[in-house]
């Protein structure tokens, strides 16, 4: 999917004009190769399309305002020292409130004469100083100065685009909370009010409404047949009885309608144990299908859990899964078992099939738990993390980190994986001392840096990034 970036090319009139002209051509080519649409001044709109004077800043700001709904972030290119006020004034007047990446060209040692020098090393510091004074948040490239064809800049740009996706998505996300929090799960309590202050909306619905609608459907209704076909196309049904599959399909149809009616991006659904006692199946299959289709769904009405899933999905472009920090892995202090009854996206479960939930079945009857998925996650990259509201402090906080999922032997049921994380014991100390939930989110990527930049720098949240 293409994304649009506003581009500001900084200029100072006592540096060679051709540097601006060359940079304009080069940045357009660079962005287009990466399927990024550049929005910038035409070469005739200002001096070679650069921004230096207040008048040019006004022109660029007007252009950005015209495309405000499209622009996800702004790239500042400094082919020379640039005019720091021109850059800052453009961003101030445009009022986009989007991420900003600052790039500056390096000088060549044999071109430091008056006619060919850039001085962008120094100019970048001045631009950042002005943005800091204006209260405008910005991101930096890995190298202080870097050419546009440098591989590190390509990665910086791709990471920045991911940061833009996360920020834009979180500021407008709509989450459905289906049912009440299970009484035994104080761990998933959260503050709707704190979330709303950050643009995160929660739409609630009583579970009885959802079950009432589901119970009024029959196996002969076209929507039920349609959802049943989708379920069978999604996964093997294993030994699941036909009647249980109909129950699952009816519930799936109602949830899909609820999401469409309220334009929801994600859901958190009451499961343990009301669904099993009052309806007779698990909702895991539906949650897995939603998560696989980039509409993340978390169980136990874990709203900030599904928010974490959504953030990681935006960062990586791939599905996320809600898991429990569940078991030690023998006596290996850097490995642990991740587990849940069975709602992970199919991307994590190549051997997926519908089954039941043995642990839950001990209290509600195994026959009432069909719909849980069974499958083992193989070795793959791992980014993990968790967003939470800290109500006593009135803040949103998070932790993120990276590791690996392994192929180590694991004989159990449900959705399961083995994770290897450096200094896992230190991470568990941090999770416990800071009151985080037993739920964590996993994503098959290496996106912790992207998440930290988006959540801390632009969303203004308190973020801990776990390292060695």
TrEMBL record:
GO MF term (any one): L-fucose isomerase activity
GO biological process: fucose metabolic process
UniProt cross-references to InterPro entries, sorted A to Z: Fuc_isomerase_C (IPR015888), Fucose_isomerase_N/cen_sf (IPR009015)
Gene Ontology CC annotations of this record: cytoplasm
Pfam family, one: Fucose_iso_C
Source species, domain of life: Bacteria
Protein known as: Fucose isomerase
Domain L-fucose isomerase C-terminal: 338-464
UniProt keyword terms in alphabetical order: Carbohydrate metabolism, Isomerase
SUPFAM superfamilies tied to this protein: FucI/AraA N-terminal and middle domains
């Amino acid at each position: 999917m293409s994304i649009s970036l506003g581009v500001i090319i900084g200029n100072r009139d006592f540096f060679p004009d051709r540097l601006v002209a060359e940079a304009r051509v080069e940045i357009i080519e660079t962005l287009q190769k990466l399927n990024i649409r550049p929005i910038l001044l035409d070469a005739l709109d200002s001096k070679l399309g650069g921004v230096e004077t207040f008048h040019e800043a006004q022109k660029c700001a007007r252009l950005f305002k015209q495309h405000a709904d499209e622009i996800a972030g702004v790239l500042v290119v400094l082919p020379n020292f640039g005019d720091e006020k021109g850059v800052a004034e453009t961003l101030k007047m445009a009022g986009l409130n989007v991420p900003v990446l600052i790039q500056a060209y390096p000088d060549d040692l044999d071109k430091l004469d008056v006619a060919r020098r850039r001085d962008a090393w120094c100019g970048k510091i001045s631009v950042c100083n002005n943005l800091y004074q204006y209260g405008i948040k910005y991101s930096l490239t890995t190298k202080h100065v870097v050419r546009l064809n440098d591989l590190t800049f390509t990665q910086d740009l791709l990471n920045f685009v991911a940061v833009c996706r996360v920020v834009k998505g979180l500021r407008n996300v709509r989450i459905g909370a289906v049912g009440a929090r299970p009484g035994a799960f104080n761990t998933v309590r959260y503050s709707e009010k704190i979330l709303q202050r950050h643009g995160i909306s929660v739409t609630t619905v009583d579970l009885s409404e959802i079950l009432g609608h589901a119970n009024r459907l029959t196996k002969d209704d076209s929507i039920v047949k349609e959802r049943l076909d989708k379920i069978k196309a999604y996964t093997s049904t294993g030994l699941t009885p036909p009647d249980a599959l109909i129950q699952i399909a009816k519930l799936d149809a109602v949830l899909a309608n609820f999401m469409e009616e309220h334009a929801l991006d994600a859901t958190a659904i009451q499961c343990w144990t009301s669904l099993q006692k009052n309806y007779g199946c698990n909702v895991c299959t539906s949650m897995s299908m939603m998560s696989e289709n980039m509409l993340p769904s978390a169980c136990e009405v874990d709203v900030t859990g599904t928010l974490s899933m959504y953030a990681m999905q935006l960062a990586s472009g791939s599905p996320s899964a809600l898991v429990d920090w569940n078991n030690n892995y023998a006596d290996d202090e850097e490995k642990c078992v991740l587990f849940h009854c069975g709602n992970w996206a199919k991307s994590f479960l190549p051997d997926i099939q519908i089954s039941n939930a043995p642990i839950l079945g001990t209290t509600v009857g195994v026959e009432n738990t069909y719909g849980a998925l069974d499958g083992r996650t193989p070795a793959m990259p791992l980014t993990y993390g968790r967003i939470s509201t800290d109500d006593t402090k009135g803040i949103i906080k998070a932790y993120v980190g990276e590791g690996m999922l392994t192929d180590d032997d694991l004989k159990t049921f449900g959705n399961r994986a083995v994770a290897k994380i450096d200094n896992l014991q230190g991470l568990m100390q941090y999770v416990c001392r800071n009151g985080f939930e037993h739920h964590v989110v996993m994503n098959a990527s290496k996106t912790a840096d992207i998440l930290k930049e988006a959540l801390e720098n632009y969303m203004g949240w308190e973020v801990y990034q776990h390292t060695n």
